[in-house]
Amino acid sequence: MTVLTVRTSTNTPPVSPSNRSGLRLSLRPPGPQVGLLDGAWWPRSRDLLRELPSLASQLDSVWGRITRVAVNPAYWGVIPREVPVRGHVVKVVGFRTEQDPHQLLLLSYRVGRWDLLVVPPEADPDVASRLMAVACDPRVVRTASALIAAQAMAATAAAVAAWEVEVGATVGRLGAPGGRR
């Protein structure tokens, strides 16, 4: 997944950073600042010390130097207090009740606050792609957890529909219940 487009301040033109690092990130396109999310990030693991440097260094050039990150510790093994990022340190804080467990809050001096949906590292690529696209849609006004829950419900509904098709085909081959001799 590459960075699609990036919402920037009105003083700078839109930017599309290259994806040399293999970073799986999508950002909302320029336009009105509506909605609750500014994009989505699909880390490769739940190790913040390993994952945050590439995210912050990529976003530094787009949003200005990332100075702080807030996460909910529910899905992260260890919350480091600081993470070194190309010539500076990013402070990391964990909030159990104040922060959506599926969201990452980033702060920078230049742009301010940015909120990213965190796609679970173990997510199926198709599911991750859908989540990353919907998190960038400026018409969608849902929390990160609401988007994850909606995707889980859609996956469950699809599994039930597939099961019903399979069971219907099996019943059709056997005949109606009680119709066997």
How far from one another are the termini? Answer: 56 Å
The helix content is 25-40%
Strand order of the largest sheet: 1-2-7-6-3-5-4
Low-pLDDT runs of 5+ residues are 1-20
User: What would the principal axes of the Cα set say about the shape?
Assistant: elongated
Category by helix and strand content = alpha/beta
Could you explain how this protein is built, in words?
By secondary structure, this protein is α/β, with parallel strands linked by helices. It has helices at 48-63, 125-135, 144-174, and strands spanning 25-27, 39-41, 66-71, 82-85, 88-94, 103-108, 112-118. It has a seven-stranded mixed beta sheet. The longest helix has 31 residues, at 144-174. The radius of gyration is 20 Å and the shape is elongated. The model is unreliable at 1-20 (pLDDT under 50).
Offer a quick outline of the entry.
The protein is of the alpha/beta class. The protein is built from 3 helices and 7 strands.
Secondary structure elements and pairings:
Elements: E1 25-27, E2 39-41, H1 48-63, E3 66-71, E4 82-85, E5 88-94, E6 103-108, E7 112-118, H2 125-135, H3 144-174
Parallel strand pairs: 2-7, 3-5
Antiparallel strand pairs: 1-2, 3-6, 4-5, 6-7
Helix pairs in contact: 2-3
Question: Descriptors for this entry?
Answer:
single chain, 181 residues, alpha/beta, 7-stranded mixed beta sheet, 7 strands, elongated
